[in-house]
Design brief:
The protein has 349 residues and is an alpha/beta fold. The protein has two domains: 227 residues, Aldolase class I (TIM Barrel, Alpha-Beta Barrel); 96 residues, no CATH class. The chain has 16 helices and eleven strands.
Length: 349
């Protein structure tokens, strides 16, 4: 299935596996790439050394194009950009808008830049700076999310920019891909659907916790890190919702210390990242401190399998999923079903 996305990146199918922290590692990314989609490594939860090793491992598993998701506000963002250029990674994606000089540097080196955005004005900004495409996630999506549904956010972005737009938030099958293409998108991006595959390294018990949820099984909360965050409903999330401001800040500081120990970051480096986050998102210091909750709470659930002490980011789509396919089965079924739907529509005409 050829679209502006497949032409831009060199993949066979217009399906993107998003860079989910603690989830999108070499095994999942390479399986996606081998199946013809665009797999994206999640580097925000990796040290520089871990990212370098993950890129090399992914390349040892596949010769197909893949990408790396970067934090534009990371203290070593420029070093990571240099790493992507040196290793000839095909795509650099960003959770926050990269600075114009970052886009220019990657562009000059032949790396495709695809930021994730949550509003038409953000898409216009990065397109003006030279981004090659954007991923637009509607409110149905998991993790940090906005309040506008994909069905409204997607057309607003498509009307605002001339670069390829990849639709995210609520996609899981061929009907979604066909619908996204009908809107004018160049493809779809999925997180939760890829988390629930055979190649995902998330513990099986956690995967089955996702599969047991219905469409009301997620909630958007600001008590994880101070920003709207869509996660699975759980006793822990309910507890966080009831917690007072002081206890939330104490918990966040504790998790900041744990994350520092895990990554080897100095307190000074963490402060620099906090300052960048504060100004980049116009946050209060309380919200910046709360953001320290995210990596370790997600790790407890997605890596350690502790559903009692971890947070599980999830799109609403979890309520419609009931199986654990391989990445190859998932992508091929989505594309095949989308092609059948498009053919039927042509016959009707």
């Amino acid at each position: 299935m050829r679209t502006a996305l497949t032409d831009l990146v060199g993949v066979r199918h217009p399906v993107v596996q998003t860079g989910m922290g603690w989830v999108a590692g070499p095994r999942l990314v390479s399986a996606t790439a081998e199946a013809g989609g665009l797999g994206i490594l999640a580097s925000a939860t990796m040290t520089y050394g871990e990212l370098e090793a993950a890129i090399k491992e992914t390349r040892s598993r596949t010769s197909a194009p893949f990408g790396v998701n970067l934090r534009a506000d990371a203290h070593d963002a420029q070093d990571r950009i240099d790493l992507l250029i040196r290793e000839q990674v095909k795509v650099a994606s960003f959770a926050l808008a990269p600075k114009p000089d970052m886009i220019a540097k990657l562009n000059d080196a032949g790396v495709v830049v695809i930021p994730s955005i949550g509003a038409a004005r953000h898409a216009e900004k990065v397109a003006k700076w030279g981004a090659h495409a954007v991923i637009v996630q509607g409110g149905e999506g998991g993790g940090h999310t906005g309040g506008v549904a994909t069905t409204l956010l997607l057309p607003s972005v498509l009307d605002a920019v001339d670069i390829p737009v990849i639709a995210a938030g609520g996609f899981f099958d061929g009907r979604g891909l066909a619908a996204a293409l009908a809107y004018g998108a160049a493809g779809i991006a999925m997180g939760t659907r890829f988390l629930l595959t055979q190649e995902s390294t998330v513990p099986d018990a956690v995967k089955h916790a996702y599969l047991q949820r219905d469409l009301n099984g997620t909630v958007v909360t600001t008590r994880v890190d101070g920003l709207p965050h869509r996660v699975l409903r759980s006793d822990l999330v309910d507890h966080l919702e009831r917690s007072g401001r002081i206890s939330s800040l104490v918990r966040a500081l504790t998790n900041a210390a744990r994350f520092r120990e895990h990554t080897g970051l100095s307190w000074r480096a963490m402060m620099r990242e906090g300052l960048a986050m504060k100004h980049g998102k116009d946050l209060t210091w309380s919200q910046v401190i709360m953001a320290a909750n995210t990596p370790m709470l997600l790790r407890a659930g997605l890596v350690e399998g502790r559903t009692d002490a971890g947070v599980l980011a999830s799109g609403q789509v979890a309520g419609l999923l009931g199986d654990l396919p391989t990445c190859k089965e998932l992508i091929e079924n989505i594309v095949e079903d989308a092609e059948k739907i498009i053919d039927r529509l042509r016959d009707v005409r």
